[in-house]
Amino acid sequence: MEKGLGKDIEGITRVEAPDFLLETIISKIETNRTTRKFQEKIILTSVISLLVVNAFLIRSYQVSSDKNSSQTELNPFNYSSITYMDNE
Amino acid sequence: MKNEKRFIEIYQDYSKLVYNLSLSYLQNTEDAQEATQDVFVKIYNKIEGFNQKSSLKTWIYRITINHCLDIIKSKNRRFRLLFSRQNEEYDSVDFSHPGVKLESKEKVAQIFKEINRLPANQKTALILKTIEGLSQKEIAEVLKMKEKAVESLLSRARATLKKKV
């Protein structure tokens, strides 16, 4: 069997790769590169947008907390200003 | 394109090897062409990371073998999903090998059908030895095994085929 297997399989001649393959390989590489660049741009844009949104949120939180604290200071009935020492 | 000249040199030196090895695994011209394209795209993307621990030829052999085995695995997975056959493997390959003479096509197709049923490492050892004509030492290098282990793989593959062909 081994001889038979060898004879049949070794009878296979080696063939050249078709000529058009190199062109299709190069175009695949170019397509991959364009896709990768596009994905990188999308990721970069998303990261920048996230940072901007975050900065905006932090800023608006700071503004609202500043407003709150200034209002509290002016409130004469603010609980934090009441001490219970007097009751003793 | 980076390293374009070097890549084209590699293509010219190894395209025949990659295409013929893909044909041996996939036994179909279209699949082999697709595999050859994908292997060279991988080579292009990974060539800068190639650490030269092994020869370029061995490295290309490994990439091609792994890629072809992945294609076969995904074909088998798709076949099982489509036909709900858990332990069966896809073996109705549309045999078209430009290197096989018309008169021996049927016999070779039958042998390949049996080779396809061997475990992946036995199949690889047999293809590298019988079709690629590599020595046991070279096969051991490609498969990252000891020569004795390759010898054992080959004898088990031959014994299985002897029963079936």
Question: Could you list the spans of chain A in which at least 5 consecutive residues all have pLDDT below 50?
Answer: none
**Main sheet makeup of chain A:** none
Span of the ends, CA to CA of chain B: 49 Å
Give the biggest beta sheet of chain B.
Answer: none
Number of strands of chain A: 0
Number of helices of chain A: 2
Relative helix content of chain A = over 70%
Radius of gyration of chain B, in Å, reads: 17 Å
Structural class computed from helices and strand pairing of chain B = mainly alpha
Number of alpha- plus pi-helical segments of chain B: 7
| SSE arrangement of chain A, N to C | HH
Q: State the largest interface.
A: A-B, 25 and 33 residues
Provide structural commentary.
- The complex is a heterodimer of chains A (88) and B (165).
- Chain A is mainly alpha-helical.
- Helices cover 73% and strands 0% of the residues of chain A.
- Chain A contains 2 helices and no strands.
- The longest helix of chain A has 55 residues, at 20-74.
- Chain A starts with a helix and ends in a 14-residue tail after the last helix.
- The model of chain A has no long low-confidence stretch (mean pLDDT 81).
- By secondary structure, chain B is mainly α.
- Helices cover 72% and strands 0% of the residues of chain B.
- Chain B has 7 helices and no strands.
- Chain B has helices spanning 4-26, 29-46, 56-83, 105-116, 120-131, 136-143, 147-164.
- Chains A and B meet through helix 1 and helix 2 of A and helix 1, helix 2, helix 4 and helix 7 of B.
